[in-house]
Amino acid sequence: MSFLPLILFFFLGLNLASITNGDDNHQFVYNGFTSANNLSLDGVAMVTPDGLVELTNDGIRVKGHAFYPSPLHFRETPNGTVQSFSVSFVFGIVPTFSDLNSGHGITFVIAPSKNFSDAIAAQYFGLFNSETNGNDRGHIFAIELDTVKNTEFGDMNDNHVGIDINNLTSLQSYPAGYYEESGRFKNLTLASMEAIQVWVDYDREATRINVTMAPLAMAKPVRPLLSATYNLSGLLMERSYIGFSSSTGATSARHYLLGWSFSMNGGTALAIDIAKLPKLPRVGPKSDPSNLLQIILPVATAAFLVAVGATVFLLVRRRMRYTELREDWEIDFGPHRFAYKDLFHATEGFQNKNLLGTGGAGRVYKGMLLGSKQEIAVKKIPQNSKESMKQFVAEIVSIGCLDHRNLVHLLGYSRRKGELILVYEYMSNGSLEKYLYGQDGRCTLDWGQRFHIIKGIASGLLYLHEEWEKVVIHRDVKPSNILLDNKMNAKIGDFGLSRLHDHGANPQTTHVVGTIGYLAPEIALTGKVTPLADVFSFGILALEITCGQKPMKQNAQGIQQTLVGWVLECWKKGSVVDAVDANLQADYDNAEAGLVLKLGLLCSHPSEHSRPNMRQVTQYLNGDMPLPETISNPGFGLFHLMQERESPTCTPCHIHH
Ligand SMILES: *[C@@H]1O[C@H](CO)[C@@H](O)[C@H](O)[C@H]1NC(C)=O
Ligand SMILES: *[C@@H]1O[C@H](CO)[C@@H](O)[C@H](O)[C@H]1NC(C)=O
Ligand SMILES: *[C@@H]1O[C@H](CO)[C@@H](O)[C@H](O)[C@H]1NC(C)=O
Ligand SMILES: *[C@@H]1O[C@H](CO)[C@@H](O)[C@H](O)[C@H]1NC(C)=O
Ligand SMILES: *[C@@H]1O[C@H](CO)[C@@H](O)[C@H](O)[C@H]1NC(C)=O
Ligand SMILES: *[C@@H]1O[C@H](CO)[C@@H](O)[C@H](O)[C@H]1NC(C)=O
Ligand SMILES: *[C@@H]1O[C@H](CO)[C@@H](O)[C@H](O)[C@H]1NC(C)=O
Fold first, then answer.
1. Does the CB atom of residue 69 touch ligand 1 within 6 A?
2. With 70 as the cut, is the pLDDT of residue 295 above it?
3. Which of 90, 167, 462, 569 has the most beta carbons within 10 angstroms of its beta carbon?
4. Is 4-268's fold the same as 323-425's?
């Protein structure tokens, strides 16, 4: 029987990578993947029983990697130029919810290491973080298939392909699609649940990178989608790993690989055998879960007439429990919208045992999203003013796009009647407040940690003030709004929230937002808020962290005194570091503590024009710049003013004579 060997060959070849040649002339083809393959997977990546690599699941802000296990030699000799290579792969993106767009995308990567544990999900694709992105020492080449428009990296739309050199701002990018033979451009939707094939070719002589894509069944189009001249010899390490990185953001999608082939110096990549590829899962995206109830309700009542009363009662109760407000204008914010029901379940029905704290703005609960097992903090804010909600949600959503290592990430929101619900990433070490005022001589933070926290807060505020597209003024910088992650990194929370009070405020009354003790005097006087008001609060906070004292303290005579006044007094008496928290038992860096105390005083200067801005503050803290001369001794210019200032609204902040 002549076809028997053929069948055997077929089965043996199925799903197995065929590796030919030695190290220098690497070639391989994966026509589907088996669990027995050698790919190095991490994050949420896994191989499905069908032979798909599932890079991400439905979790939000997750990342997944799949790499060829061993590094490849990209140069013939250690000092030679990078050889030509060809890659081809087939991917499919299945959005989690059909009515929302999906984040964030897949990248094909060539990198010196497979270890991306420090990389961030969402717009960083699990490849970079805010520090490594744009770093020339990364030696990272990537092709991004990006399904979210991110202005930070100059993205053109939410469905594009880009060539990235160490930097998520692409060297070249174009909407996903391909050129027909006639020269006509046809759009492709990346997150379409359809398999799409991509070819990446590098020509060593011409130093040209071509990227081409087409629907699965189609032959490779002649004209590439992207074609850039870039000499990879200056970029790639001799030994580099190749693979894929995917991530989800506030919205998710399952990112799949169906097949992959690679060849170095061997002309075009070995053809992927389309007939052997596994199928993308047929289950489509879920529709919004809250719609389901509306269908179940009438069906249930009709079918179980006897149980009608009970069923209706139960369902009505259930619906009331989960009822949320949704209006037309919110469609634009869809990706950031959480179903109330999911949050209800995540927090076990907002039970008190999950209560993390009660702040001025509302109650905060700990929760865990059922699907992704992600830990979250859910804040419920009573909210009555309707007209401002739209504008506020727009702001919240835009603020949700802020991404900085010293900001608590806002994942999204939900709404109910009279209630706004904000969902944040969960910070395992809670707020700074509980570490500060070491009771009974207990010292909870050493000096190194304190200094690191102060620098972190400064860096977060700098980002809010200067490094994002809009100026964001926090207006309520204080210990309870600083959260600590598992590595004791400081993250600023609740930014942008103070605007809520603004929008909701009765125009007849001038409502001042902020907390007594941290409030810059000019706000009380003029109501005008500038970033320098945050600098003031930062100054007080820095003193607090260093001294382990509240902004108001009692002196030995039992008289209320401001912390600022007390630190100044210590300084006048000869040594400013006498103000440092006694719980540290003199175990601190004299120069650093002195710097922070003087800087704290400068920042909390009553005259806003005498305060530095956050950029200068970070420069002082990093030792890039010495403190200005004016503050080199305690007799500096406005010292007097500082101790004896009088402003009617700030009475509690003053020394009572
Ligand atoms: C698995 O890896 C080993 C060593 O890296 C290699 O010899 C082998 O051919 C690989 N097998 C497959 C199926 O990739
Ligand atoms: C490669 O370059 C390094 C310095 O860049 C040099 O020291 C070394 O001799 C070179 N090796 C060869 C084989 O050319
Ligand atoms: C990956 O890198 C991080 C630090 O960048 C390190 O802590 C970790 O041990 C590394 N993991 C592996 C598997 O090498
Ligand atoms: C990334 O590339 C863009 C465009 O070339 C450039 O403006 C930006 O400064 C780069 N980012 C970094 C961090 O170098
Ligand atoms: C392809 O999509 C882009 C962006 O979505 C759009 O501007 C363009 O008109 C589309 N082109 C065609 C031929 O449909
Ligand atoms: C890239 O595409 C151009 C046509 O646009 C073609 O001339 C060139 O040979 C291609 N290079 C590679 C490496 O495929
Ligand atoms: C690419 O850069 C390398 C040095 O990094 C150089 O030797 C080589 O000539 C360049 N190739 C081209 C075609 O310019």
1. yes
2. no
3. 90
4. no
